[in-house]
Specification:
By secondary structure, the protein is of the alpha+beta class. It folds into two domains: 198 residues, H-NOX domain, CATH 3.90.1520; 74 residues, Arc Repressor Mutant, subunit A. The protein contains 13 helices and seven strands. Helix 8 links the parallel strand 5 and strand 6. It is globular, with a radius of gyration of 21 Å.
Length: 309
C-alpha cells in the first residue's frame, strides 16, 4: 500500500502573502485546495503532502506566476526549514549536511519524499523526489524544493554560487526562463529532480556553524505517517471548518469509505475511535486554555452531546 505523505504547513504563510501581494485571493486559493485558512496561524500543523502540492498549483493559477515556487524558496533560504536548517548549520561539511538532511527530512518535515546525494564520477546530484503517486502540482513542488536545496548548498559555498545544472521531471516547464534566472543556471529535464555540481564541493567546510544553545536549535516532534495518524490529522483539520465525516476523509486520501474502514481495522482501530480521541484532545486543550463554556467547547469540537468528565 503506498503511503500518504504528510508535511508541515510552514509554506502556507509565504504563499498567502505572495498571493495577496500580487492582488490575488488567498481565500480562493486555499478553497480550491480544500485547505482551511486557519492553517496560516499554525505553521507546524501537519497536512497531507498532496494538499500542499494542490495549494502551490492553485496559487500559481491564481496569480499567473509559474515562477512563484522558485521565488519563494530562493528568497526564504534554509531559515524557512526550521529544524532542518539547524541541522544544516550544525554540520562541519556540505557532505555531512546533506547526509543529515536526508536522514531527518522524512522524520521532522515531510514524509513520502526523498532528498539526498547520488554520485556520478566527478559530479553529484543533490536530488528531491516525491514517492507518493500524485501529479497535481508535482513539478511546481519540485521547483519549490530545489530552491531550498540551493539555499542549503549556498550556506557552504556562498550566496553567489550556482549549480552546473538544475534538473526537473517532465518535458515542459512553464516560466522556465524566469526560473533559470532565479536559480542562476540552465534547467534540464530528467527522471529525477536535483542540483548537479562537482563532487569535490561535498568537502566544503561550514563557514558559519551555529553555536550550541542557539534558540532555534530545537527539534520538532517526529512526524508519524501511518494511516491512523493521517486520519487523525485530517479530522483535526476538518474540526476547524466543519463537522468531519469519514466520507470526506476517505476522499482526501484517495480511498473509498469501505477501503479506509478495512485498512483502519487492519491496524486495530476504527474511524469512530480516532474521531473520538481527536475531539477529546481538542476539548481538553480548550478547557485548559480558553474561557469558554461547555456548550461553546462542544460546538468547537463538533460534539452533538455535552462533554462529560
Amino acid at each position: 500500500m503506498p503511503g500518504h505523505g504528510l508535511t508541515r504547513a510552514r509554506t502556507m504563510g509565504p504563499i498567502a502573502e505572495a498571493v495577496m501581494a500580487a492582488g490575488g485571493s488567498p481565500a480562493r486559493v486555499f478553497g480550491r485546495a480544500d485547505i482551511p485558512l486557519t492553517l496560516l496561524d499554525e505553521p507546524d500543523r501537519l497536512i497531507l503532502l498532496r494538499d500542499q502540492l494542490k495549494l502551490v498549483d492553485s496559487a500559481i493559477r491564481e496569480i499567473g506566476d509559474p515562477a512563484l515556487p522558485a521565488r519563494l524558496s530562493t528568497r526564504a533560504g534554509i531559515a524557512a526549514l526550521g529544524p532542518i536548517g539547524v541541522q544544516v548549520r550544525a554540520a562541519e561539511t556540505l557532505g555531512e549536511a546533506l547526509a543529515r538532511v536526508e536522514a531527518v527530512t522524512p522524520i521532522l518535515l515531510q514524509t513520502a519524499t526523498w532528498t539526498g546525494v547520488r554520485l556520478d564520477g566527478a559530479n553529484a546530484l543533490y536530488g528531491y523526489a516525491v514517492a507518493e503517486r500524485t501529479e497535481c502540482g508535482r513539478q511546481a513542488n519540485e521547483i519549490l524544493a530545489l530552491g531550498y536545496l540551493l539555499g542549503t548548498v549556498r550556506h557552504f559555498l556562498g550566496r553567489a554560487w550556482q549549480p552546473a545544472q538544475v534538473v526537473v521531471t517532465g518535458a515542459h516547464l512553464p516560466g522556465r526562463a524566469e526560473i533559470e534566472g532565479l536559480f542562476g543556471c540552465e534547467i534540464a529535464f530528467g527522471p529525477r529532480a536535483g542540483l548537479i555540481f562537482p563532487t569535490l564541493h561535498l568537502d566544503a567546510r561550514n563557514p558559519n556553524p551555529y553555536e550550541p544553545g542557539d534558540p532555534d536549535a530545537s527539534q520538532d516532534e517526529p512526524i508519524c505517517d501511518d494511516l491512523a495518524a493521517c486520519v487523525a490529522h485530517l479530522i483535526e483539520l476538518d474540526l476547524s471548518e466543519a463537522r468531519p465525516s469519514i466520507d470526506a476523509v476517505a476522499r482526501r486520501l484517495g480511498l473509498s469509505r469501505r477501503t479506509l474502514q478495512r485498512r483502519l481495522e487492519d491496524t486495530g482501530t476504527r474511524y469512530v475511535d480516532i474521531q473520538h480521541h481527536v475531539r477529546a484532545r481538542r476539548a481538553k486543550v480548550l478547557l485548559a486554555g480558553a474561557n469558554l463554556s461547555i456548550g461553546q467547547i462542544c460546538q468547537a469540537t463538533r460534539q452533538t452531546d455535552p462533554l462529560t468528565p
